[in-house]
Amino acid sequence: MPTTSPHPPSPSPPTALTPGYLATRLSTLYASTLAHTLRACSYANFAACFPTPAARRPQVLHGLWLQVVGKIEAKAKEEFEGILDERDVVEGLNRLEGVVEGGRGRRGGGVGVVPHLLPPLDLYNAHLAPRLLPIQADLDDRLQRTRARNEELGALVRRQREEVERLVGGLEAVVRDLEGANEAMGEVVGGVRAEVARL
Asked: How much is the pTM?
């Protein structure tokens, strides 16, 4: 006759690719710390470093501030992800979590994490993270490509604007030359009229 345990079976530790509790907490902590750090670099603080542009062209300085903060955030996240991948941090934290759970199980009579006691967000992440991570990576890749394309288009628009300004400057010079020639011709025509009138 099979015996039934009063405790549900403990869940298997997360796989190397699925972030466990510690890896998720590390990512959450990093994201919140980065957000707090970037909030400290407010527009008011940034504008105080550049008083002349802040007074004369605040919209340009605000755009520059958004770009700087965005670049810092993107670079910090990219480097953090690179370190996580390079050092296999998720896999190491998952192994550590498994060791800790194994120790708790041996010490506490074989009961590990009871799934119904986990917070809802952890259950949600455990079920959806394997499906959402590739989608998130794809969206991040598309966003990076779109940003790069936007920068290329912005540079093209700036070059075209400079070309238009150069052409308009050349046309203004031609108009000035024509006006000068018109004035000179006016004097000549006036002299010819006077001579014709005398004849």
From this structure: 0.45
